[in-house]
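Work Package 3 (structural annotation) set out to generate three-dimensional models for the target panel prioritized at the project kickoff. During this period the team completed the workflow that converts sequence records into discrete structure tokens, so that structures can be stored uniformly alongside our sequence database. As a representative example, we reproduce one entry of 376 residues exactly as it appears in the project archive.
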Amino acid sequence: MTLSAMSTTVPLCAWYFGSVSLIGIVTNLLTLWVISFIFYGIMFSCMVGAICLPVGSAIAWCTAWLIRYVLLAAKTLASFPLAAVYTCSTYIIAWLIFTYVLFAVFLFIKEKRPFVFGCCLTATLLVCVAASWAEPMLDEYRMTVLDVGQGQCILLQYQNKRYLVDCGGASAEYAADAAAELLLSQCVSRLDGVILTHYDRDHAAGMLLLLSRLPADKLYLPDVEDTGGIRAALQTQFEDEIIWIGPESITQIQNAPVTLYASETAATDNESCLCVLFQPENCDILITGDRDAAGERKLMEQVDLPKLEVLVVGHHGSNNATCMELLNKTNPSAAIISVGQRNSYGHPSADVLERLNLFGCMIRRTDLNGTIVIRG
């Protein structure tokens, strides 16, 4: 019955949720038998409790232990490697298609061999998982700008190092899931570091949720005030891992070509953004967060910016960012805009697009192109 139901639910989950549970059959075998007891236990505890509260409480106490068993089993099994696979990997999509083709062949052949069928699925799954893990390792560097709606979430990969810049978007859960699934699909279970440019929700709201699924060795946070509570929550849970980036400081991340430039001011959230310069060999990439034109000019006073191969356009393409002086100085070959479809802010601004076109930039936008990958 479980296999029959999964033949329909698997493609639906893959399409709508981007994931496929591989541990689901085992979970059902371990927990389905107890669900009826939980259901009836709740009913009886309510009915008996209305007549005799001590007896109803005793039934409820027993039922609660059954519920704890189900939750513990689900949590334990979900922590296993390959408990789920994610369709953000094209190899997993190919494996799913192959699975259904093989399943159709299995149904129509006369001599059915379930063991051979299972071995074929397992072997091809392991090949696809290995390919998902190995492909990023073949690149010297990679930058992935995730499509998280109106927000920003960027993964920087250099050799075996992985740093996530910001994690916020249309919703905190959506941004955290997008980042976690991308990393888990590459068999990455831990980040070398996370960087917050600032504490606005469209850049930072998903970070706590992400770190609950994938820990990080270091957190690089701007040492500025935050009225939204994100800074305080991160400090409470990860105080030992935090590296505070104070005003006017320049921080080179050890063993990675990543440099952080702090603002001179903490007057507003946007003006206090950290800027991130990612410089793998033969490629210079600049992320300015939500800094406006004045903040960009301050950055140019602070550092002699190189010619850029890629500029992540500031403030999602707002007209008050990506000034002519910055473009004149860096002359980027490509410009990436992390922006949500039909957002209420009118981003990206027509003026910004015109300025980028004036400098001959190749423009890519997450609202039009989805997740964008730069690799070398």
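The two ends are 47 Å apart (CA to CA).
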